[in-house]
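Human:
Take a look at this sequence-structure pair and walk me through the tokens.
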Amino acid sequence: MVVTICGNDHTKLNERLRAILSELEEDTDVVELEATGLSIRDLRDYCNTMPLFGGKRVVIVKGISSLSSSDASSSTDQEYSERKTRTSSSQLVKDLEDYLPEVPETTLLVFFDRNPIGTSGIGRVLRKYSSFEEYLLPEQAELPLYIRKAFESDGYKIDSESAEILAQAVSNDVSRLQSEMDKLKMYCKDKLRIDPEDIYLLVDMPPDVAVWDITDAIYSKNAGKAVQSFRALLEKGVAPQQIIGAISSQIRNLVIADSCRDKGSLYLQQATGMKPFVARKLSTALSTFKPGQPKKLLEMLLQVDLSYKTGKAELDSALELFIQQACARRF
């Protein structure tokens, strides 16, 4: 039997491999191989070897894309390099297609790859001659729900806001997601709950997401938290110029939301293309502002930027004063 397990959802990949191994009898002969430098000829030898105890033999090959054609192991480095340039890809596909139907019944051959495998070449052969299982991380729009389910499956609580913040933090780099989730689980293992402040503390994120902690505190009139979050960003090495730019972007969105505050978050989302989470957050924030105040807030921030660029103020101190005045609604 031949099984292929691949994809970029490493959590599910590992769970599936563990599940396969947990079903084996204690005396099962298990061989783990790295595909790098492994030829189809070598693979055939491993798979065709009879199990030591007369039961089942399991051969796990990690990194299918690094396999070599059947005659590569008997060639010199120069010969192999030249052959690889000309024919190794097509030869590998042919060798693999010829051998997989011949894998002995006494052997379970598992191909394990931490990347998606395409539908042509090796991918076509594996889909045809193996039980093919591909586990992929979701697209950006599906990430928040995926994050919540992943944490909840391990016994952690996380609300929709925290899941959205983490999704925005990793942005299009979903390969980072698993390591960030593991970091958060370790940090929050005693309380078994992931809060926004945990994410802001532990996860490296772009300034336009990192400033949410500041703007959320401004919206809720929490000057202490807003200033603390601002100073924390400075300590992490985020430049004041980046911070003011990101805050400006958030407040511009608030001004847009203020212009249609009576129409709700769904209208705001549809009219502007904002993500649902952002539209809901802005609609909620408006309840702490009177009509027209967001525009005054933006004008005040632009004045801070102008004072810095004309040499009349240090940007970090001027920004901190702005944050305090914004929380107090002193426009």
Q: What stands out?
A: The longest strand covers residues 107-113.
